[in-house]
Amino acid sequence: MAADLHPPKREVFDPPAMTNTDNKGIVRAVEEFRSTDYGLYMSRTADHRRFHHLESWLLPTLGLRANIFHFTPGHRSDQRLYLDVGRFSGPDEDGRWHAVDWYLDLVDRPGRPLQLVDVDELFEAHAASLLSTVDAEQAVRIATVALGGAERAGDVQSWLDEQIGERLHWLDRT
User: 100 lies in a domain?
Assistant: First the structure.
């Protein structure tokens, strides 16, 4: 088993409180939330050595969280989107949204096919009974649909836009 074996990461996005609580329980202030028929947008600063700002779209019907990490100089400047595969839901009765990360991730870099990563984490988590067979199978289905969709559409951003019926808004992109 991998040394970093862990249960699925869970986060809370709380528009009424303007906070994002990560899987370690750290609560961070959020600059902007935007709720739509297809998901929730979040923009916040980050206290991370590799990136200074994070934008995310929770897209429940797609089983994806699309992220843009605004990296500090020298860190992954070629990465456009980073997609987490999982269960994303909201709002609940208190207006909060919830994310459960099912280990698989998709990385978008210009000029390269969408890359599937962390397959080993998915299998190790399932073997350790941290993720059910149903959820593991759903994670593979979600990733497969996204990979095929991005290939057919020409890139993952175009595929996401097709799926939701409009262009996703990002700070530095129209």
Answer: yes
Task: Find the largest Cα–Cα distance for the chain.
Answer: 43
Structural domain contains residue 92: yes
Full-prediction pTM beyond 0.85?
yes
Q: Mutual orientation of helices 156-164 and 133-153 as an angle, nearest 10°?
A: 110
Count of domains forming the chain: 1
Q: What is the CATH number of the domain that holds 42?
A: 2.40.380.10
Residue 105 lies in a domain: yes
Q: What is the pLDDT of residue 174?
A: 38
- Structure tokens that stand for 129 in this block: 């009974």
Q: Which residues contact 172 (CB under 8 A, 6 or more apart)?
A: 68
> Is residue 172 one of the residues assigned to a domain?
no
Which of the residues in the chain have pLDDT under 70?
A: 1-3, 48-49, 51, 71, 74-77, 172-174
Contact of 55 with 41, CB cutoff 8 Å: yes
Confidence at residue 157, expressed as pLDDT on a 0 to 100 scale: 94
